Amino acid sequence: MKPVNLAEKLALFTSHWDPHVIADYNDNDVMVVRFQGAFPFHLHENTDDFFLVLKGEMTMDLQDSAHTVRAGELFVVPKGITHRPRAEEECHVLLIEPKGEPNTGDPATAAAKPRL
């Protein structure tokens, strides 16, 4: 047990849409990621999707709406809802997902989740 410095972890990589596991929480991965541009629309059938903006801002596009999420704000997408995060400028985000959950909702197109 020790504190995890999120800024230090984010400084270890520069790639976008590339989540890195920084901690375990029950049966979940706690990850940091850099967003820039638009991620593909996708959904998670069996789990909600948790986003906490650490720096910058992102937009969460849903099928019929879009929501701006700024630093210090979080957004939870309920399971089964099609969504797409996007960011005009680079944005730093903390994600929480069940271990093994593909970030695209599909194992065939998901990014690896290396541990820092």
Would you give an account of this structure?
With 116 residues, the chain is mainly beta. The chain is built from one helix and seven strands, in the order H-E-E-E-E-E-E-E. The chain has one helix at residues 6-10, and strands at residues 20-25, 28-38, 49-55, 57-62, 66-70, 74-77, 83-98. Strands 1, 2, 3, 4, 5, 6 and 7 form a seven-stranded antiparallel beta sheet that branches. The radius of gyration is 13 Å and the shape is globular. The chain starts with 5 loop residues before the first helix and ends in an 18-residue tail after the last strand. 25% of the residues are buried. The model has no long low-confidence stretch (mean pLDDT 95).
Notable traits:
about 45% strand; globular; about 120 residues; mainly beta; 7-stranded antiparallel β-sheet; single chain; 1 helix
